[in-house]
Design a protein that fits this description.
globular; mainly beta; 1 helix; Porin; two-stranded antiparallel sheet; 12-stranded antiparallel beta barrel; 15 strands
Amino acid sequence: MSMNSSCVGRFITLTVLGLFSLSCYAQQQGFSVKTGVQYTTGEYGGTQDISDIYVPVTGRLVTGSWGLSATLPYLRVKAPRGTQIGPGGEPIPGSGDMTTESGVGDIILRLTYFNLLRSADKRFAMDVTGKLKLGTADESKGMGTGENDYSIQVDGYGFFDAFTAFGTLGYKVRGQPQDFALEDVWFASIGGSIPIASRTRLGMAFDVRPSAYKSNEDLRELSLYISRRSANNWRYSAYLSTGFSDSSPDLGAGFSVGYHY
């Protein structure tokens, strides 16, 4: 069974979007650390549930207009023997007995330039981010593909009184393992959030991207999240998600907690 840790993308993206909308385009300078847990499950076109638990630890430094973050994750996957779980958490189900694998996943590095574009009235902002997934996980244990992935994305935000809209458009170039061929893909998301209490926002996001495998359906997922920033520099986020294709999980849930120094 081959497992991949890049499902952290959706986890981090929802957290960052929620906290960004809380701060209304101004990025807080300094260092922050964040951790949490994500759970997903689904049959992915097979006959048995494939479930994973993902626990990332992320450190992030913001200085001036730049942000640099690094994520080290732990991953635990339960699936039929012979399952291949490739990039983006896309399983090709096996047919053997159920088995469980766990260990440290691939390291994720992100470099963001904030406010690449920003309107004079502060109602629109755009960031650009480059991401590198290092193939550092133990390939012999099936904890990754052993290859590096590269992606670039732009994130746009619109601020309309109590409503914040956001969208993402990006492109990912995948490393090519020996055992299976992977496709380079575009990816996109769109959503929005509203305030529901002081320092608390409720949001929704829809994500879509082609599968890394030619024979698989495109991934389509809808997520509902809530984010809160406390007065003493603690930040919290939680979400629920569901998929609309065989390549997407039937159900996902996660939360994160972070502190800014």
